[in-house]
């Protein structure tokens, strides 16, 4: 005869509480004091309680098919210099579009909150969200100049971060895999027969992703002979830091004189960069692509064959952020995780006329 399964009612009776209290405790709901949650969780473990996976699946199914009268809200929190300034820069509008689409698909509504509202503080916004019953938070589009810490009363919230800033607290985050995107570009260029490959990157943009652009570039350089390796050209100059740390707009352009000196000294066959960073300078130097120098765009925004490069799947980043957050909410996982995780979204390579294979080289 099969052993009888321990139920929530069994745990509630032993603990001397209502079955709803046990349910809240096992879902780690912040409505209960932490001491109560731990006591009931410990008791349930000793009694051998385990949730019924079929029942959980049924609840999840019903949650999808039954129309909700009050659609739960997820907060999309930004901390840019202006309310909508993030919409004018690369990637961030697509992050939001992906998040909004996935939130709707999963039965949520996504509401934007700007930390720069007059009179707004981090603590006040946290209180506003909590008072409205909003427990799911996506931290996105956080300008580097806005500080490296976000101080909410985190036990009240489940949260996922898009990209790297702010660094604290260490939340689960989703981001483009800049390191592997740079590596993919290098691998494709080397497979096309080129060896003198230079990267041009804005210092602030590299800093914003914890130097993953240069990390990927330097990693693949190890496949080249020492005499073939070219130092990355980072702009603007390293000091003063204020010149580059907070510069995040899409239309930043490399400084002509230092770039021209780097090009003259290194003579790259291929430049890996962002089109808006270097194309104006190359034009001013009367250099033609691909006749004088080949070009690969690791911020490719169209795959029509005119440019070679990597499309970053920004929309997928936003979608995954909501999926991960929805999973945390379903299991009532609140607060700063003990072991934060990072989910990387790969880029997609596209061949293009700006970097054709070297004559005689076949590319698979």
Give your account of this protein's structure:
The chain has 364 residues and is of the alpha/beta class. The protein has 3 domains: 7-46, no CATH class; 73-176 and 316-345, Rossmann fold (3-Layer(aba) Sandwich); 178-312, Rossmann fold. Helix content is 37%, strand content 16%. It contains 12 helices and 12 strands. Strands 2-1-3-4-5-11 form a 6-stranded parallel sheet, covered by helices on one side. A 6-stranded mixed sheet has the order 7-6-8-9-10-12, sandwiched between helices.
How many beta-strand segments? 12
CATH topology description of the largest domain: Rossmann fold
Low-confidence stretches: none
| Count of discrete structural domains | 3
So what's the overall shape? elongated
CATH architecture of the largest domain: 3-Layer(aba) Sandwich
Q: What structural class do the secondary elements suggest?
A: alpha/beta
What is the CA-CA span between the terminal residues? 61 Å
Could you state the order of secondary-structure elements as H and E?
HHHHEHEHEEEHEHHEHEHEEHEE
Q: Mean pLDDT, as a whole number?
A: 89
Major sheet attributes:
6 strands, parallel
- Please indicate the percent range of residues in DSSP E strands (runs of 2 or more): 15-25%
Over the alpha carbons, how many angstroms does the gyration radius reach? 25 Å
Number of helices: 12
CATH class of the largest domain: Alpha Beta
Name given to the CATH homologous superfamily of the largest domain? Response regulator
The helix content is 25-40%
Q: Order of strands across the biggest sheet? A: 2-1-3-4-5-11
């Amino acid at each position: 005869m099969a052993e009888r399964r321990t139920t929530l009612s069994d745990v509630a009776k032993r603990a001397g509480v209502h079955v709803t209290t046990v349910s809240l405790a096992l879902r780690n709901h912040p409505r209960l004091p932490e001491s109560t949650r731990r006591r009931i969780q410990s008791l349930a473990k000793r009694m051998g309680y385990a949730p019924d996976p079929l029942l959980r699946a049924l609840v999840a199914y019903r949650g999808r098919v039954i129309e909700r009268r009050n659609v739960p809200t997820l907060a999309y929190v930004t901390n840019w210099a202006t309310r909508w300034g993030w919409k004018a820069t690369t990637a961030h509008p697509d992050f939001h579009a992906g998040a909004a689409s996935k939130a709707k698909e999963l039965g949520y509504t996504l509401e934007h909150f700007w930390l720069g509202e007059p009179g707004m503080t981090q603590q006040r916004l946290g209180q506003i969200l909590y008072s409205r019953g909003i427990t799911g938070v996506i931290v996105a589009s956080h300008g580097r100049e806005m500080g490296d810490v976000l101080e909410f009363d985190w036990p009240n919230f489940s949260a996922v971060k898009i990209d790297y800033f702010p660094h604290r607290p260490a939340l689960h985050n989703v981001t483009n895999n800049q390191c592997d995107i740079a590596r993919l570009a290098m691998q494709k260029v080397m497979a096309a027969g080129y060896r003198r490959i230079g990267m041009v990157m804005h210092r602030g943009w590299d800093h914003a992703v914890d130097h993953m652009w240069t990390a990927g570039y330097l990693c693949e350089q190890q496949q080249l002979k020492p005499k073939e390796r070219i130092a990355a050209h980072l702009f603007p100059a390293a000091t003063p830091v204020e010149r580059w740390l907070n510069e995040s707009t899409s239309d930043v352009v490399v400084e002509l004189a230092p770039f021209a000196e780097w090009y003259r000294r290194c003579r790259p066959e291929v430049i890996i960069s962002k089109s808006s960073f270097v194309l104006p300078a190359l034009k001013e130097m009367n250099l033609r692509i691909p006749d004088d120098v080949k070009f690969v765009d690791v911020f490719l925004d169209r795959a029509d064959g005119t440019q070679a490069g990597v499309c970053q799947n920004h929309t997928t980043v936003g979608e995954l952020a909501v999926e991960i957050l929805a999973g945390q909410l379903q299991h009532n996982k609140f607060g700063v995780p003990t072991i934060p995780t990072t989910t990387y979204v790969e880029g997609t390579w596209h061949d293009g006329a700006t970097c054709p294979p070297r004559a005689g080289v076949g590319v698979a």
